[in-house]
Amino acid sequence: MSERLAAHAQRLFGLTLSAAQQAQFARYAAELEAWNKSRANLTAITDVEAVEIRHFLDSLSLLSALDIPLGARLIDVGTGGGFPGVPLKIVRPDLRLTLLEATGKKIAFLQHLAGVLALADVQLLNARAEEAGQMPDQRERYDFVVARAVAHMPVLMEYLLPLARVGGLCVAMKGESAARETAEAANALRILGGQVARIVPIQLPAVAELHHLVLIQKVAPTPRAYPRKPGAPAKKPL
Ligand code: SAM
């Protein structure tokens, strides 16, 4: 199965997966399936080929759009079963990765996964984004802040931007609604210190809808009042 993933990654994104990395992806798919059945509700996607495309390849699309320096600090907000953070870490083991997730059961899976995949330099943070954004060792500490399928853009910006250093980049992985949601986030971006850099379309094999990476540059510090307390961003979006 991982040969098919390797072929797609090479053709679409110019990424060469080693035999060891292919084995890590195969093990990841197996662990997802096992935990999904028994313990945590990690993914609605269960078919192996769909996992490869909609989880692994979709996550790796970030590497085609971003120039990530060696040893960069990256946080994946609302990572769930580890997307996009874990596939990125498999392909770029130099990344200093933080996986942020509010649900304890999912953190337990990620802890197990990091062990079986022998991932080094991964911090697991069981917290809400609104809490992490106010922690001194997390706030404005990251070169890259990424998220997939976590919240609508105006809300998501209040989760992501406080974690990025000035000059860092936030990436929202979105579907067809990317441009509209980004327009709706104009006020949040102005308040929080973000600026739209680029929207990159991503076409995945056998996926009808176009995916988009919304790249937001952090251009100014985020005011101390943000993020607001847990729940407030979603209840009263900026
Ligand atoms: N990013 C993963 C993916 O694309 O497969 C998971 C997406 S899942 C739909 C959304 C995840 O974000 C859930 O695991 C949820 O617990 C987490 N989440 C939602 N709001 C959050 C918040 N404010 N702080 C931390 N995690 C959050």
What this model shows, in words?
This protein is of the alpha/beta class. Helix content is 42%, strand content 21%. It is built from ten helices and seven strands. Helix 1 (2-13) packs across helix 2 (19-38) and helix 3 crosses helix 4 (85-91). The relative contact order is 0.13. S-adenosylmethionine (SAM) binds at residues 78-81, 83, 100-103, 106, 128-130, 148-150, 159.
- Residues in helix, %: 40-55%
Name the overall outline. Answer: globular
Radius of gyration: 17 Å
Heteromolecules bound = S-adenosylmethionine
In the predicted model, the low-confidence regions spanning at least 5 consecutive residues are none
Taken in chain order, the helices and strands follow as: HHHEHEHEHEHEHHEEH
Q: Could you give a short account of the major beta sheet?
A: 7 strands, mixed
Mean pLDDT: 94
In what range is the share of β-strand residues? 15-25%
Question: Based on DSSP secondary structure assignment, what is the total number of beta strands?
Answer: 7
Number of helices, where a helix is a run of at least 4 consecutive DSSP H or I residues: 10
Q: Helix- and strand-based class?
A: alpha/beta
Strand order of the largest sheet: 3-2-1-4-5-7-6
Layout: helices, strands, pairs:
Elements: H1 2-13, H2 19-38, H3 48-65, E1 73-77, H4 85-91, E2 96-101, H5 104-116, E3 122-126, H6 129-132, E4 142-148, H7 153-160, E5 164-174, H8 178-184, H9 186-192, E6 194-202, E7 211-218, H10 232-235
Parallel strand pairs: 1-2, 1-4, 2-3, 4-5
Antiparallel strand pairs: 5-7, 6-7
